[in-house]
UniProtKB/TrEMBL annotation, chain A:
Classification via HAMAP family: ThiG (MF_00443)
Coiled-coil regions, chain positions: none
Subunit annotation: Homotetramer. Forms heterodimers with either ThiH or ThiS.
Domain Thiazole synthase ThiG: 7-251
Official protein name in the record: Thiazole synthase
Keyword Nucleotide-binding: no
Upper lineage: Bacteria, Pseudomonadati, Pseudomonadota, Alphaproteobacteria, Hyphomonadales
Keywords annotated in UniProt: Cytoplasm, Schiff base, Thiamine biosynthesis, Transferase
Primary location class: cytoplasm
EC number(s) on file: 2.8.1.10
Role, per record: Catalyzes the rearrangement of 1-deoxy-D-xylulose 5-phosphate (DXP) to produce the thiazole phosphate moiety of thiamine. Sulfur is provided by the thiocarboxylate moiety of the carrier protein ThiS. In vitro, sulfur can be provided by H(2)S.
Active-site residues from the entry: K99 (schiff-base intermediate with dxp)
Organism: Hyphomonas oceanitis SCH89
GO biological process, one term: thiamine diphosphate biosynthetic process
TrEMBL record, chain B:
Protein name (database record): Sulfur carrier protein ThiS
SUPFAM superfamilies membership: MoaD/ThiS (SSF54285)
Pfam family, one: ThiS
InterPro entries membership: Beta-grasp_dom_sf, Mopterin_synth/thiamin_S_b, Thi_S, ThiS/MoaD-like
CDD domains: Ubl_ThiS
Origin species: Hyphomonas chukchiensis
């Protein structure tokens, strides 16, 4: 069954986007990304390490010719910082597809939505394709879509929390109103969380810690791949209606 | 003359261009300078301008590249 994910006009076969943070090594990171079947990986932009040149660098392991790099703005708390960071990312990599996240405070890493919207508009005006990390507020999600974002990425729960999808009703509302891909970003802890996001009708899931912080990240990456596929197929297949009472699966006729 | 490179003071020769600085750093670290973005006094210096951008006293340079992140 061909069921591609299309973001900003580009086709992807995998609906699982993975991060490249918190792994024991970049080698493990690359192995996990492959086990997840991911085609897109998020990356951060930081100062070149001038004092320790022997240190491993991401691009030697998670190679940009194997994975689509999605530069993020993790650590940015204002629209100006985020725009500055992504302009540098475009200069470093040469591509326009980016993940915008503007955070509000260090304790929750909750998105600052007014700053996020301001940054999204500035980036889109500057030619970027913006996938946007956002709260699960359908009103702001609609504003971001109308501003021209190419993917709406509400949190399932707080970044790195592993609490799963805390507000499935809002996620569903966002899915129903949105014409561009909706990707749950943050909060997924287990394969069942990922499957749930997909069963709600999301177009994809983005995760980092759920894989990186598992006892066996490679095995968890594989589990997440299957969960996303299972959730997607379950959504497309259409679930049975819920009923209050039992309904026997074996025929009643011919009972001895 | 002195510039600030990634937040640290650094002495460079007058007349040095961005391209020359990247070359010097590349020789010192053994790293390919491709994939590094350069910002000078909060303005991006495109790769095509590296060879023509002469550093000046007090310049604040940021050299950035991709690292792992979620």
């Amino acid at each position: 069954m061909s069921d591609p994910l299309i973001i900003a006009g580009k086709t992807y076969n995998s609906r699982l986007i993975v991060g490249t943070g918190k792994y024991a090594s970049y080698q493990q990171n690359a192995d996990a990304a492959r086990a997840a079947g991911a085609e897109i990986v998020t990356v951060a932009l930081r100062r070149v390490n001038l004092s320790d040149p022997g240190k491993e660098i991401l691009t030697d392991f998670v190679k940009p010719d194997e994975f689509t790099y999605l530069p993020n703005t993790a650590g940015c708390y204002t629209a100006d910082e985020a725009v500055r960071t992504l302009r540098l990312a475009r200069e470093a990599g040469g591509w326009n597809l980016v993940k915008l996240e503007v955070l509000a405070d260090q304790k929750t890493l909750y998105p600052n939505m007014p700053e996020t919207l301001t940054a999204a508009k500035a980036l889109i005006a500057d030619g970027f394709e913006v996938m946007v990390y956002c709260s699960d507020d359908p009103v702001y999600a609609k504003m971001l879509e109308e501003a021209g974002c190419c993917a709406i990425m509400p949190l399932g729960s707080l970044i790195g929390s592993g609490l799963g999808i805390m507000n499935p009703v809002n996620i569903r509302l966002i899915v129903e109103q949105t014409r561009v891909p909706v990707i749950v970003d943050a909060g997924v802890g287990t394969p069942s969380d990922a499957a749930m996001a997909m069963e709600l009708g999301c177009d994809g899931v983005l995760m980092n810690t759920a894989i990186a912080a598992a006892k066996d990240p490679i095995l968890m990456a594989s589990a997440m791949k299957h969960a996303v596929i299972a959730g997607r197929e379950g959504y497309l297949a259409g679930r049975m209606p819920k009923k209050m009472y039992a309904d026997p699966s074996s025929p009643l006729a011919g009972l001895i | 003359m002195q510039i600030t490179l990634n937040g640290e003071p650094r002495q460079v020769n007058p007349g040095m261009t961005v391209a020359m600085l990247l070359e010097e750093l590349s020789e010192a670290t053994g790293r390919d300078p491709r994939g590094v973005a350069v910002e000078r006094n909060l303005e991006i210096v495109p790769k095509s301008e590296h060879a023509f951008t002469v550093l000046e006293e007090g310049d604040r340079l940021e050299l950035v590249q991709f690292v792992g992140g979620g």
